[in-house]
Design brief:
The complex is a heterodimer.
Chain A (H helix, E strand, L loop, with lengths): L1 E7 L2 H5 L2 H11 L4 E6 L11 E6 L6 E6 L6 H16 L13 E3 L4 H4 L17 H6 L4 H9 L2 H11 L11 H10 L6 E6 L8 H8 L1 H15 L3 E6 L4 H16 L15 E6 L9 H8 L23 E5 H18 L3 E8 L5 E6 L4 H8 L9 E6 L5 E4 L9 H6 L8 E6 L4 H15 L5 H18 L5 H17 L3 H5 L2 H9 L1 H5 L9
Parallel strand pairs in A: 1-2, 6-7, 6-9, 7-8, 10-14
Antiparallel strand pairs in A: 1-3, 3-4, 4-5, 10-11, 12-13, 12-14
Chain B lengths: L2 E6 L2 E6 L4 H7 L23 E4 L6 E2 L10 E3 L3 H17 L14 H8 L16 E2 L5 E4 L8 H10 L4 E4 L6 E4 L16 H5 L5 E3 L11 H13 L5
Parallel strand pairs in B: 1-5
Antiparallel strand pairs in B: 1-2, 3-4, 3-5, 6-7, 7-10, 8-9
């Protein structure tokens, strides 16, 4: 009987001592026990997490998940390790080892059962620092297949037929984007992965980068082959040190093993990937600013057209997709269009909800299913008031509309966006003006300052919202808030300014009462 | 050379393909307010004053960089656009400290002219009175950040025409300001050739000749255009 212990060492569990837990267990593991660090196991709120896989040689291996392990308490951690060592030293132990502390999590809970893991298939299963495990799990097989078939047009057609849309927020059809870049004249093209995940409450891309970097590299290589690019960049934010380290390592390993570089897998396809680390500017997630930043310039958006497909990094035709979009590609190629179906969306569920974490659900899942069934709803004694999606570019879905399926169109109809996948649940103690002000302060801070409406408009909007929060505002201020929101939205140069007023407009639409209740009775217009 | 015909504010216009909507409007004698754009410098489409409505497009388009297209129907002065322009000017006035009465550019200021043009007799938004500084370290010129509207004309003229690249934008958002060198006092930047082109293109009194007092600054962007034209066509005699 062999035992495999998977310890989550991604950012959230690591902050609760996941890495200490892994080291303590690895130090005492016997020959029949494997201890490895893996990427995100899902329910971050229950961290640090440990998965036990027992293989008896017959039938499927049995999996058990344990949460809330005592990793931050040295004494409890030592007791945990002693128990594992005692078990490992006794080959006639009646039953496989179980952690004496912590809490067993039910893997049949909807949180796990209702997921469909395409992007996160290997996340939490393999050691993200080992390319051997990645290869054993089948990563890079789709790239090999694509290179053997050597038919870029067929790959683009497959992506187009699948209906895959950009997972970064805007939802642009991926196949169309690829086809446009492929059709651009010129021998030198570039593929860029946008890993500048900056929305407050969003950590899906981080999960992929930390848990399964090789799938991203495979997706990028397939895209590069399809559009005819030989250079790639991953633009990742500096706030993700673990993701950066794992990407560096993965790129190095892939180069060593011939999955990146020249003559990949014996073909004539060359593709190299360079890592670019951001410097703390949210606006660099906007593609034209991102390009400027890669080029070593001040990260400021420029008007489009020309689109990056025409004139991107160093003036070359450039394909830009985000992490999750690229990570979808190997799964899509493996399954084919029919089995892939509507695809999935990865969400980071957070806020006033019992179980937070990273989940991947079929596209079109109800918000209520995600928030109440999977997440367990609001904490005891409270009710859900709204769910915020799309970060500073998105808006709030009120509780009474939770039966909305998660699709690009349905969320847009409610005045919010799919966004990159941050899903922040707010309970009935939340003041929506406060939320709107939080996001406006964020946009004010992150505005690059190039165009007037965003640079000066977000400041005025933020000041107006503060005025309301301080109960110094009158109905005329509210009117001014609304009209300035529309003006900033209509006139700003890039997506940041154009969507900065959305959290205000969305909360005004669904929770106007919160605003009216805060107007000052004394203030004269 | 092909020609596009389009309709701007109910007026038919024929213009070379590749021209911008702004050029087409000016050719037809239709005035669209602008601030950051200046003939002879690369456009940045940052002030958003020249936004126009084009039939068939939901988005407002900046006339300074939008190329003309055959059959386009353009509206440059709808009530919606007028409201936007006034708000842009209000945002600019409230963001800095613009006191016309004591300004070197009073009477010859593009911001002041724009305020009159868009009918901004007062600001509906509160003034922010930011704490900004004045750089008088240069022997010939001064930079008063209070009057700067961040149009970046100075940045572009120094980089693109003079080739010295003394100016840049530092910081971000509301903290943005024009910086000399690596955020040094202007006078300490060796790269500055003392040509004064930045002062000439500055639309307000932010950049000025040290000897000037109120109402005495007369900028002449036409000199820049003459220089760029002469270089481009290699015609140095008028």
């Amino acid at each position: 009987m062999s035992l495999c212990l998977r310890v989550c060492t991604a950012a959230s569990c690591r902050s609760r001592g996941g890495e200490d837990l892994r080291q303590a267990l690895a130090a005492v593991a016997g020959s029949s026990t494997v201890v490895k660090g893996v990427g995100c196991l899902g329910p971050c709120s229950e961290g640090p997490l440990l998965e036990l896989e027992t293989a008896s040689g017959v039938g499927h291996p049995e999996r058990q998940l344990f949460g809330n392990l005592p990793a931050s308490d040295p004494a409890a951690l030592a007791a945990l390790a002693r128990s594992l060592r005692a078990c490992a030293e006794n080959p006639k132990a009646p039953a496989p080892w179980q952690p004496p502390a912590g809490q067993a999590l039910d893997l049949n809970h909807p949180f796990f059962r209702l997921q469909r893991r395409l992007v996160l298939k290997h996340c939490g299963r393999i050691d993200p620092e080992s390319i051997t495990e990645a290869l054993a799990a089948g990563i890079y097989q789709q790239l090999q297949r694509v290179l053997e078939a050597n038919d870029p047009a067929a790959v683009i057609e497959l992506v187009r037929r699948s209906g895959l849309r950009g997972r970064g927020g805007a939802g642009y059809p991926t196949g169309l984007k690829w086809a446009t870049v492929a059709k651009m004249p010129g021998h030198e093209k570039v593929v860029v992965c946008n890993a500048d995940e900056g929305d407050p409450g969003a950590f899906m891309d981080r999960t992929v980068l930390e848990g399964d970097p090789h799938t991203l590299l495979e997706g990028m290589a397939i895209a590069a082959h399809a559009v005819g690019a030989s250079r790639g960049f991953i633009y990742v934010r500096a706030e993700y040190p673990l993701a950066i380290a794992r990407l560096r390592q993965a790129i190095h390993q892939a180069e060593q093993q011939g999955w990146l570089g020249t003559a990949i897998a014996g073909s004539r396809f060359n593709f190299e990937i360079a890592l670019r680390v951001g410097a703390g500017a949210y606006v660099c997630g906007e593609e034209t600013a991102l390009i400027q930043s890669i080029e070593g310039k001040r990260g400021m958006p420029r008007p489009r057209p020309p689109y990056p497909a025409e004139q991107g990094v160093f003036g070359l035709p450039t394909l830009i997709n985000n992490v999750e979009t690229f990570a979808n590609v190997p799964a899509l190629l493996r399954l084919g269009v029919e089995a892939y179906g509507g695809g999935t969306k990865v969400f980071s569920l957070t806020g006033d909800v019992l179980r937070t974490g990273v989940i991947e659900v079929p596209m079109g899942t109800n918000l209520r299913t995600i928030v109440e069934t999977m997440g367990g709803g609001a904490p005891q004694g409270r009710t859900i008031k709204a769910v915020q999606t799309g970060g500073p570019s998105g808006g709030c879905v009120p509780a009474q509309q939770l039966d909305t399926p998660v699709t690009y169109e349905s969320l847009q109809a409610l005045g919010t966006i799919m966004g990159s996948g941050g899903m922040v649940v707010m309970d009935d103690t939340t003041n929506m003006v406060d939320i709107a002000r939080f996001f406006m302060a964020f946009s004010r801070e992150e505005s690059c300052g190039k165009c007037v409406p965003c640079r000066a408009g977000t400041v005025q909007l933020d000041n107006l919202l503060c005025r309301i929060l301080e109960r110094r505002a009158n109905p005329a201020d509210l009117e001014q808030l609304e009209s300035l929101c529309v003006m900033v939205m209509d006139t700003s140069l890039c997506g940041l300014g154009q969507s900065a007023p959305k959290p205000v407009l969305s909360t005004l639409r669904h929770f106007r009462g919160d605003y009216l209740a805060m107007l000052s009775p004394e203030a004269t217009p | 050379m092909s020609v596009c015909t389009l309709r701007i504010d109910e007026r038919d216009v024929a213009i070379e393909a590749g021209s911008t909507l702004l050029q087409a409007a000016r050719e037809a004698g239709i005035a669209i307010p602008t601030l950051c754009v200046l003939e002879g410098l690369s456009p940045v489409a940052a002030c958003r004053l020249c936004l126009v409505e084009v039939s068939g497009s939901e988005k407002l388009l900046p006339a300074c960089i939008t190329p003309v297209q055959e059959g386009m129907q353009v509206h440059t002065a709808t009530p919606r656009l007028q409201e936007i322009r006034r708000t842009v000017i209000e945002l600019l006035f409230t963001e800095g400290n613009h006191v016309c009465a004591i300004c070197v550019a009073n009477g010859h200021c593009e911001l002041q002219d724009l305020a009159v043009e868009v009918g901004m007799d007062h600001s509906r938004l509160p003034y922010r009175f930011p704490d900004r500084h004045v750089d008088l370290s240069h022997p010939l010129f001064g930079l008063d950040h209070n009057r700067c509207v961040l149009c970046t004309r100075c940045v572009r003229v120094c980089d693109e025409v003079e080739g010295a690249h003394v100016w840049d934008v530092g910081w971000r958002g509301e903290h943005c300001r024009i910086i000399a060198g690596l955020d040094e006092p202007w006078g300490a930047v060796d790269a500055c050739t003392h040509c004064g082109k930045c002062v000439e293109v500055c639309p307000t009194g932010a950049l000025f000749h040290k000897g000037d007092t109120s109402e005495e600054k007369h900028s002449d962007p036409g000199r820049l255009q003459a220089l760029v034209h002469a270089r481009h066509h290699r015609q140095w005699t008028p």
